[in-house]
């Protein structure tokens, strides 16, 4: 078995600008369905949809879910406590069942760092999550992503070269220290490193408000990457009006703005979004209220401002889980977040009515790329003494990114 390694380097070049739609965005609707149940097929069958996923040996492609289940359990048992499998909340149930721990991206990375006895960390999530786990884990630990094509469309919308061009333009207009960069956790290690050396910070959806308050204590302006909606919703929560925010278009000179407009703005938002959460709209909320007069609507802050304003509650993945789980029996909840998580919340709260705002079932296409066949493949490699799909962040990037992460941790 051939080992595959991926590195994250700090890039500082300025290529010609051409609008590019990430393949992760194009494939977002590949598994959309009107059926409630997203049944896992053989990987070979899922390939027939035309997705551009990592190729693995044919024996794994054709293995049935039952065969893979047996292989995965056997392989995990052989590795024992040398292995920890992490499962993000948005993973399909056929992956979550093998997770030793489940949570959001940062919670999982923190857990990985707290398991020094584990030589191998298999991160069933997407690429930026595995990078963060590598930054926070020990040098003796190998972080593995089962499918290298499991990226994140939002993270892919903020390429480091484009962000560096933006940063150079902003520091030219505003001067060194004139703007504080904040990056959402859903970003590459290279962008986290830029925030580290630029005096900025990383945030999650649960502490974005605290990160904004911290940044405004350091300077008068914020560059928020890469999700414009979380940035806009957080700014609104702090009383920063739309007239004080701008969206930076990386494919236009100066982000599409004049020097004067940039000087007058308080928050500059990168033009990125979540392909899952921007599917939700106010009409869906209105329909939920018509069909269920006593419904409570809860959404993720990656949704548009209009959706967040129309909802009863908004918050992080962990907030959504906690709020619904602690709600009284008999209550009804319409949730605006990823369908695999919504289905799991419904299963774990049978005393409540829980449903997704969007009647069309669309899983996060990049999370869905972690098929049991990939997990079986990387586990077999470990038992053969081969680390497959190891994610490694170079030391310079790791150290600079750690600065931004440590500033966030100091807020908690």
Folded structure, characterized:
- The protein is globular.
- The chain is of the alpha/beta class.
- The chain has helices at about 25, 45, 60, 65-80, 95, 105-115, 125-135, 155, 160-175, 190-195, 210-220, 230-235, 260-265, 280-290, 305-310, 315-325, 340-350, 370-385, 395-410, and strands at about 5-10, 85-90, 100-105, 120-125, 140-145, 180-185, 200-205, 220-225, 245-250, 265-270, 295-300, 315, 330-335, 355, 390-395.
- α4 packs parallel to α18.
- The model is unreliable at about 1-15 (pLDDT under 50).
- The longest helix has 15 residues, at about 65-80.
- β2 (about 85-90), α5 and β3 (about 100-105) form a beta-alpha-beta unit.
- The chain contains 19 helices and 15 strands.
- The protein has three domains: about 5-10 and about 40-150 and about 365-395, Rossmann fold (3-Layer(aba) Sandwich); about 155-275, 3-Layer(aba) Sandwich (Rossmann fold); about 280-355, Rossmann fold (3-Layer(aba) Sandwich).
- A five-stranded parallel β-sheet has the order 7-6-8-10-9, with helices on both faces.
């Amino acid at each position: 078995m051939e080992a595959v390694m991926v590195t994250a380097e700090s890039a500082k070049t300025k290529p010609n600008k051409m609008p590019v739609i990430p393949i992760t965005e194009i494939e977002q609707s590949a598994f959309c369905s009107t059926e409630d149940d997203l049944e896992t097929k053989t990987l070979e069958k899922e390939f027939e949809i035309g997705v551009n996923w990592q190729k693995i040996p044919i024996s794994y492609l054709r293995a049935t879910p039952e065969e893979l289940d047996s292989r995965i359990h056997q392989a995990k048992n052989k590795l024992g406590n040398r292995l920890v499998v992490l499962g993000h909340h948005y993973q399909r149930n056929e992956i979550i069942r093998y997770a030793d721990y489940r949570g959001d991206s940062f919670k999982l990375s923190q857990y990985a760092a707290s398991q020094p006895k584990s030589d191998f960390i298999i991160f069933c999530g997407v690429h930026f999550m595995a990078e963060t786990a590598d930054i926070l884990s020990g040098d003796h630990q190998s972080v593995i992503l089962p499918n290298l094509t499991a990226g994140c469309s939002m993270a892919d919308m903020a390429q480091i070269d484009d962000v560096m061009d933006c940063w150079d333009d902003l520091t030219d207009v505003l001067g060194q220290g004139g703007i504080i960069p904040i990056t959402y956790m859903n970003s590459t290690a290279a962008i986290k490193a830029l925030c580290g050396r630029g005096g900025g910070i990383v945030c999650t959806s649960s502490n974005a408000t605290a990160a904004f308050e911290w940044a405004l204590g350091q300077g008068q302006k914020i560059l928020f990457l890469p999700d414009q909606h979380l940035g806009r919703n957080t700014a609104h929560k702090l009383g920063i009006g739309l007239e004080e925010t701008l969206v930076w278009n990386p494919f236009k000179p100066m982000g599409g703005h004049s020097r004067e407009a940039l000087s007058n703005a308080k928050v500059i938002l990168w033009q990125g979004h979540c392909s899952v959460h921007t599917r939700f709209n106010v009409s869906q909320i209105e329909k939920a209220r018509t069909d269920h007069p006593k419904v409570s609507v809860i959404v993720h802050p990656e949704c548009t401002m209009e959706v967040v304003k129309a909802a009863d509650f908004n918050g992080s993945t962990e907030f959504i889980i906690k709020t619904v789980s602690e709600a009284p029996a008999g209550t009804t909840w319409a949730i605006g977040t990823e369908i695999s998580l919504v289905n799991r919340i419904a299963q774990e709260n049978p005393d409540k009515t829980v449903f997704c705002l969007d009647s069309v079932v669309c899983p996060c296409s990049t999370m869905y790329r972690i098929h049991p066949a990939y997990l079986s493949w990387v586990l077999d490699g470990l038992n053969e003494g081969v680390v497959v799909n190891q994610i490694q962040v170079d030391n310079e990037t790791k150290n600079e990114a750690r600065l931004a992460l440590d500033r966030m941790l100091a807020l908690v």
